[in-house]
Structure formats: structure tokens, C-alpha cells
Amino acid sequence: MSSEATQLASALETSRGPLVVLTGAGISLASGIPTFRGSDPGAVWARDVTEMATLRYFEADPVGSWRWYRQRFSGILAAEPNPAHRAVAAIERWQARHRRNFLLVTQNIDTLHEAAGSTRIAKVHGSADRCRCANPGCRLGAVDSLGLDEVDFAEFERAPRRSAIPTCPACGSLLRPHVLWFDELYVSHADYRWHVVEPAASRMTLLLCIGTSLAVGVTSFLQSAAREVAAPVFLVDPGARPADPRSSLVHLRCRAEELLPEVVRLLMPSADGR
Predict the structure, then answer these.
(1) What contacts 100, CB < 8 A, 6 or more positions away?
(2) What is the pLDDT of residues 55-105, one digit of tens each?
(3) Domains detected in the chain
(4) Which residues are catalytic?
(5) CA dihedral for 171, 111, 162, 159, sign (positive or negative)
């Protein structure tokens, strides 16, 4: 076992309280999903401008927005969990056995954590397998959402145009991707579960960050919350140390799909992570 795995397993064992795990795009890279700000060749923002991921862009060009997301979603939803996703699910089960609270906060819109068996999840940036009403005053625009498999995009796929974009069954407005855009707030939809993230952050005894550049709002919020409650912060990511992390951050420069299964074997040597 590596010293990094031993260090992280020891921290998990001794924290004896609520654990918050924060995951970013790096955890899904081994499943074939490109990162956003990473150095991998497929990194999304190496090719596409940030403006596309805004409510402003959707309102100006809903056809262009849906075409981009439909193409991206097809690859995301075809991916399979890798050992890092399965290890996170195993750590959740380990926490439950020890009667310790757990919350997985993911920035990812893929469904790999769910497929791997994680259950206590806050998908703060939305989910690629769902859509919702573009009218924030509609029940399906602020509280509920629809599975993509409940919506017929066949006509839009044949001839992308505004009139072919599926509409909300509750109010008739256009449907939109169920993702948090750069010009929106975490509290803009109940599915983002910000009402769950905030109290969990105030009680956590350890923050474990995996595959994230620590460069978005939720990462800043959780790091600040960890500082307030004096919770240790670990980052598992093979890249360079983030430019401006809190000084006490423990950076384990390892691939999550390699390190986390080691950690699980240390925590549950006889159960093989199950």
C-alpha cells in the first residue's frame, strides 16, 4: 500500500464524524469524459467558449444550446463508472457502518456516481439525464425536473429548430438542459440540493476533494466552511497543487482510480470494498 493511501485511510478513520466528499471532472476522466479546465486534450473549455454555458446564451439561441448539449450528453451518458467512483460508494457504506454521516457533493453532471452505488448525493451542477422547464415560475422549472427518457427529441434530432424543441407538459414553455449555468445560482433549483450542502458543511469533520481544480463557487464555499469548523482538507488529484488553496490542504498527487481503491482495502480489508 502507498503512503498516500495510508495517510488518507488514517484520516478517515480518526475523523469520527460527518464526511463531505467533493468530486470534480477529474474523477470521471478515466471513464472517458473530458474535464472542463484540465490539461487533457479533450478539455471542454479548451475548445468551447464559456459563454455557451449560460442562461443568456440559451435564451438567445435555444437551438444552438440544445444541439451542443445533446451532442455532449450522448457521450456522458454512455460512460461507465471507474474504480474511483466505486471506491467513493464503498467509503459511503463504510461511513454508514460506523454510524457516521456522509454527503457526496459532485460538480459533475454525469450519472457515474449513481451507477457505482452512491446514494447520498448533491449534484450541485445538475444532471445530464434530466431536463426541466425554462420558466423559473413553473413547478418543473424550480422544484421538479423530467428524465430525458420521458421527453421525445426525435423531431429536434431530425431537423434542429426552435419549434422542434420539446415543451414543458405543465406550462408549455421550452424545456432546457438541467444544468447550472455560469450566470445562475446554486439555489435556483431544488434538485441542486444546496439546502442539504449548507448544513452538511457546517458539521463536517473532514473534507475530501477528488479530481477538482478548486476553481468554482462550491469548492470555495466548502473550503471556507472547512476552515470555519477546523476540518482537515485532502485533495486527490494528479495535477499541480492549486494556485491558491488554504495552506493546510493535504495534496495527494495520485490518480483517484488508483489511490481510492487502496484506501478502501485499508478500511475494509476483508470486505473487498463491498
Answers:
(1) 15, 16, 17, 18, 19
(2) 999 999 999 999 999 988 888 999 999 999 999 999 999 999 999 999 999
(3) 1-33+81-125+189-274 (3.40.50.1220), 39-78+129-179 (3.30.1600.10)
(4) 125
(5) negative
